[in-house]
Design a protein that fits this description.
The protein is of the alpha/beta class. About 40% of the residues lie in helices and about 15% in strands. The protein binds adenosine monophosphate and manganese (II) ion (3 copies).
Length: about 290
């Protein structure tokens, strides 16, 4: 069974529409897919409509990826199996969206001081009806201002401590965990090794996430090597967190593909262990 619990659509910084993402899931033979757009659940309705029409065998998990602040770091908390009709969650996300808007204006101001004029309008055009993210500004810099790659756009301007970095007033980790859980979902620490922190800080992060009541951590995602994987799995086991896995899919590319990061662990308990997955239920007993 192929399970991918982290993916994006055009409702945040993904390049495929929800319908296109469902089609990609079918092509890649993904059986269980969570859509986890940044601070929004608006893409899920289209995805469900497409899945029920064209890929009914798919188990589509309602998800979201919430931005939080922890010390100087922006930490992403994925919510899985959330009730999208929950009013508290909806209000929480509306506030996140407001913060994204305010931050975008400030980012554009800073970019203008670097000589890049008119980035807000362009980034908004890329974002469309979706949430505006730094990834949209990165695309604007690449497409219009001779910045060679998206990575360079972050490295030179948009990344932590760089010239167009804006400290957003995100809520703390515990608030994200709480809002996810009160909406019936599980809170998952996203891509723990992507925060550019030392091992000591990483241990502290996972410890505090666990102490805040967090349910699970991603242990398989793009950009890992065997050493980091083993280290991460050992801390996750130590804190008795459940294990999640996902491709963090944004668009098809050389390094990224839907369904690519599968959990293979005999010791960790998968975050989906008690979900009623209708597809090939029996294979759940096998290591996946
Ligand atoms: P935001 O949530 O608005 O802060 O935007 C963060 C998003 O930008 C992440 O979810 C990634 O998709 C993307 N991103 C962050 N860092 C990089 C990077 N170094 N290179 C390319 N994309 C990045
Ligand atoms: Mn993203
Ligand atoms: Mn993330
Ligand atoms: Mn993501």
């Amino acid at each position: 069974m192929k399970i991918d619990l982290h993916s994006h659509t055009t409702f945040s910084d993904g390049r495929l529409t929800p319908a296109e993402l469902i089609q990609r899931a079918q092509t890649m033979q993904v059986d269980v897919l969570a859509i986890t757009d940044h601070d929004t659940i608006y893409g899920l309705a289209d995805a469900h409509a497409e899945a029920s029409k064209h890929y009914p065998a798919l188990t589509l998990i309602d998800g979201v990826e919430i931005s939080t602040r922890w010390h100087s770091f922006e930490i992403h908390i994925v919510g899985l199996n959330i009730d999208t009709a929950d009013p508290v969650l909806q209000r929480f996300l509306a506030e996140q969206q407001q913060k994204r808007e305010e931050r975008a204006v400030k980012i554009a101001d800073k970019l203008a001081k670097c000589g890049f004029v008119g980035t807000l309008e362009r980034a908004r055009r890329y974002a469309g009806v979706g949430q505006i993210t730094r990834a949209h500004f990165a695309r604007v810099l690449v497409d219009n201002f001779q910045v060679p790659t998206l990575e360079k756009a972050f490295k030179l301007y948009l990344g932590k401590g760089k010239r167009a970095a804006v400290k957003a007033e995100w809520p703390d980790i515990a608030a994200a965990v709480k809002v996810i859980q009160q909406a019936g979902g599980r809170a998952v620490l996203a891509h723990p090794i992507h925060y550019d922190m030392s091992t000591k800080w990483l241990r502290r992060l996972i410890g505090e996430f666990s102490a805040s009541g967090g349910d699970a951590a991603e242990v398989v995602f793009p950009g890992m090597n065997a050493d980091k994987q083993a280290f991460l799995q050992s801390i996750v086991a130590e804190h008795e967190l459940l294990a999640s896995a996902g491709s963090d899919f944004h668009f098809p590319g050389r390094w990224t593909e839907l369904g690519r990061c599968q959990l293979k662990s005999d010791t960790l308990t998968p975050v989906w262990h008690d979900w009623h997955l209708s597809v090939r239920q029996s294979s759940l007993k096998d290591p996946v």
